[in-house]
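Structure, all two chains, one model.
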Amino acid sequence: MDENSLLIIILASSFSKADLHRRLRLLREYLEQRFYAPEKSLTLQDFLNEKNVDKDDQQIMLSWGESFYNGFTKETAYDVLDHMAARAKELPTMNLYVPFTPDGKEMMKLGIWVRDNVDKNVLVDIHVDPSTFGGCSFAWNGIYHDYSLRHMMGLKMNEIRKVLSDYAAHSS
Amino acid sequence: MVGILVVSQMAVLWFVLRIRRKTMTPDELLRDSRIKTENTIQRAIQQANKILVSAELKGIQLLSHEKVDSNELANQFQTHLQTIEKALEDQLEHSANYAESTYTGFARTAEKMINDHIAKNQKIVEDKSQEMIENTERLFTMLSQYVEAAIRSELEKELAKSKEEIAVYRQERMKVIDERIVDILEDVLRVTLQKKLSLADQSDLMYKALEEAKRGSAFSATTQKANG
């Protein structure tokens, strides 16, 4: 399995920049343990448990399969990992501002939607921002887009003012 | 009468003494004269005593007569006194009656005068009081009108001021609302919906926003300006 295929497998289940970097780091640690500390002979599951990795990451990293991990050798592992990290930095990134922290399941759903509708290789960089209440905002291609409720209300400012003015006129 | 007798006795004695003085010696004459003098004196004393007695008698007699006259006089005086007393009583009674009638008249006149004076004073007091009351009423009316006008003016000013303040307040509030309408609505919605919005709700709103962005071509490669 070549380097590109390995990255595609990782990207297929890693939609956020944070997830990708965290999993690449875990993968590097696991491979180091596997190649440079064979005496411990920890399985992936044991390793993930030892590192107290959360369930979502465990599930995803286990889903990559043995063939994925066999694609790394002691001689190529660092180079492949470095290349993958470099490639990851080149991937298009959408900075998404949301008022909540998506869990693993929600992140996957969001990632799929973004890759279906924005770019098939895009990574989402999640930023929790309460001011985006009732929607979200994002920066894409260097342009900030505000689709928060606040922004939407701002767009409807004249209509809202008219409603208030009419109300004030009726109540005075 | 007693005086005449004494003078005549003294004249006889003087004549006898002139005759004897012409025939006797000085001593004899002196002695004789002394004797005669003593006799004469004695007789004179006796005569004087007689005269005195007689005079006393006469006096008593006269006094007796005088007493009788005095009684009459007293009676007359009594009668006269009674007359005078009667006259005085009459006069006094007359005077008393006159005084009484005069006093009564005076009292009536005084009473009438006093009554007239009182009535006059009362009339004056009533007139003055009425005038004072009318003046006071007029003053009170003027004061009342003045106070009413002043209060009305103040109230109108206060009302206008309050209306102006309310208008300014409303304008300020509307300005604040207008300026911060989005913040207010956002806060209202946040307070209202925060606890009611589940993660799934917020996720739905996020996808709606993303769909809106997609419809607005926010994800197209050529998009160069912010949408929304």
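The beta strands of chain A are 93-98, 123-128, 136-140, 143-147.
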